[in-house]
């Protein structure tokens, strides 16, 4: 592929891309059924790029050894969930300097007011998160993550919708100003039904960074703990097992978990529980989750027992990613009028007369 200023290079297969921040010691079952299952499926038809968004994680101060550990765990969990590093590029965002470089370009294309209107920034700062300029420019780095790979499809949760919209706006703005250069990605907002709620408070979304431990099934929880959390899940005072997220959020959440892990549609699950109580529901869901997590944990443990090998997998992913990102960045820079750096050593300079 040329790194000269041609158009957008032809791609054999469309590209999918997504990332997750390494902000907790483990991903949770909501990340699994809500996102990773989708990533895994997209590998079949897309040229897939999946990365650990470690630069984004720097927007929250974290001890270096904690960040290091969480980054490896997140990568290992992608793979344990079925992301296949032979087929998909699995890598760390910080290993590709082009992300931050294109992030700067995106920041220069973004109006201050436009960035100030991003709801996630407003929410996070309203909730008391210490703000810094990195948090403010988070969406521009995310736009760069996506645009640097000419991604066609970006599977993310509803909470990232606005970030995808600004990404599309920035790509179109760039193309308008400098000519067709960047692929405008399609958002792929993951299904609402795969959004899991906290077990201890089924009106709040299960979140790795804010939910209490009792509300979350961590993919690294041991089976006994998982069963205990599910059996203690908050339900309601009725008896009937019915999908009704408005009035029965706890029961509905358990049904969604079961449906997501087994593929059985919700109405069929409802009828299978006819005449049974919440004890039966919880027992069955606990068993299904424990069974689903067991092979996952075996792979994860194996990967984490050999960090050298995991780092090599990430190096291969970074190499594949770099082949694409370097080309895009060169195209962008050229279009904007940044001079190409001439390679060559000092001895090749014309000697003084
Ligand atoms: N902001 C995303 C999240 O918190 C993570 C992310 C960073 C991402 N860069 C991305 C997701 C690019 C998709 C594409 O979930």
What keyword list fits this structure?
353 residues, mainly alpha, 3-stranded parallel sheet, 14 helices, binds tryptophan
Which residues form runs of ≥5 with pLDDT under 50?
none
End-to-end distance? 39 Å
**How many strands, what sense, and barrel or not for the largest sheet?**
3 strands, parallel
Task: State the helical fraction.
Answer: 40-55%
In round numbers, the mean pLDDT is 93
Order of helices and strands: EHEHHEHHHHHEHEHHHHH
Radius of gyration: 23 Å
Q: What order do the strands of the largest sheet run in, or round the barrel if closed?
A: 1-2-3
Strand content: 5-15%
Task: Give a written overview of the molecule.
The mean pLDDT is about 95. It contains 14 helices and 5 strands. The protein is mainly alpha-helical. The chain has a 3-stranded parallel β-sheet with strand order 1-2-3. A two-stranded parallel ribbon has the order 4-5. α3 crosses α13 (about 280-305) and α4 crosses α8 (about 140-145). The protein has helices at about 30-40, 55, 65-80, 95-110, 110-115, 120-125, 135, 140-145, 160-180, 225-230, 250-260, 265-270, 280-305, 305-335; strands at about 15-20, 45-50, 90, 155, 185-190. The structure holds tryptophan. Tryptophan binds near residues 19, 53 and 156. Tryptophan (TRP) binds next to β1, α8 and β4.
